[in-house]
Amino acid sequence: CLGGTREYLLSAVHEWVQSPTPPLFWLNGLAGTGKTTIAHSVAEYYDERGQLGASFFFSRDQQDRRDTRQVISTIAYQLGKAYPEVEGLIATAIKNHNPLHSNSQTQLRHLIIEPLSILPHPSSLPTVIVIDALDE
Question: What InterPro entries does the record point to (predicted)?
Answer without folding.
Answer: NACHT_NTPase, NPHP3-like_N, P-loop_NTPase
